[in-house]
Write a structure and sequence with these properties.
Shape: globular
Number of helices: 4
Number of domains: 2
Low-confidence stretches: 4-23, 232-237
Helix content: 10-25%
Radius of gyration: 22 Å
Distance between the termini: 22 Å
Structural class: alpha+beta
Mean pLDDT: 83
Length: about 260
């Protein structure tokens, strides 16, 4: 019994860290571009998901209704301000896959003022009760200038920085998803094509995007991915821990 107890403790907490394997993660997947569409059955993204919804507008959009990946309404809306156009990226000459289609067009970030994307009515119950992770995908404008540019992407708490020269690097997406992780404006990431804001919650979010050289970066897609609840196996193990502890207490002599 004594040997089994620490093993069960370790197993229980390990299983608690696993997502519930009986259900796929629920998502809201947004393709931010005109005239290109990811097929509804194609699995795309750093967290592969289907049901990508094309969100178009020129140069911005207001209160667009958002759907879950199964096509049902999420109840959320999205608004973009501060963009100066919907443009073609450099990726359309690099690769030709469902993932590259998501990168082909996007909303061009303006340098004055900052571009903002706000969301309201986001789900906070059901699969989204434990929160959600937000992914933003970006690439270079095909008409980009011959200058090194820096992109800052922020959720109001954390800002990620990416910097490179589009005419020497070419497309940022060449077949692989690479996360931009630098939070140091003086030492931005030189590689990457998406940023991740993890563990968010609440019905409203606003994200801002800033560049120091105009006509360079496009935001091409976004994902809201529900954080999975603890696994059923882990919950059962924790319950067993309680029963085992109670039994050990009962079997010990008491004065």
């Amino acid at each position: 019994m004594k040997a089994a107890f620490p093993l069960l403790v370790t197993t229980g907490f390990f299983l608690m860290a696993l997502p519930y394997s009986g259900q796929a993660q629920t998502m809201i997947n947004l393709e931010l571009g005109n005239n290109v569409s990811v097929s509804g059955t194609d699995s795309v993204g750093a967290v592969p998901g289907v049901g990508w919804q094309e969100v178009s507008g020129f140069p911005n959009f207001t209160n667009v209704n958002l759907d879950f990946d199964d096509g049902s309404s999420s109840g959320a809306t999205a608004t973009l301000t501060g963009s100066n156009g919907n443009r073609t990226s450099l990726v359309n000459t690099a690769v030709n896959t469902p993932d590259s289609i998501m990168f082909e067009r996007g909303f061009r970030i303006d340098d004055t003022p900052n571009s903002e994307m706000s969301f309201s009515g986001l789900p906070t119950t059901g699969d989204f009760a434990a929160g959600y992770d937000v992914y933003f995908y970006f690439d270079y404008d095909a008409a980009s200038v011959d200058d090194t540019a820096t992109l800052g992407a922020s959720d109001g708490t954390t800002t990620f920085y990416h910097s490179n020269n589009p005419n020497t690097t070419g497309s940022l997406f060449t077949g692989s998803y690479i996360q931009t992780t630098s939070t140091d404006s003086l030492n931005p990431s030189a590689i990457g094509n998406y940023v991740l804001f993890s563990g968010l919650s609440g019905a409203s979010q606003t994200f801002s995007f800033d560049i120091d050289v105009d006509n360079t970066y496009l935001i091409t897609g976004a994902q809201f991915v529900a954080v999975p609840e603890p696994s059923t196996a882990g919950l059962v193990s924790i319950a067993l821990l309680g029963l085992l502890a109670r039994r050990r207490y009962r079997d010990q002599p008491h004065s």
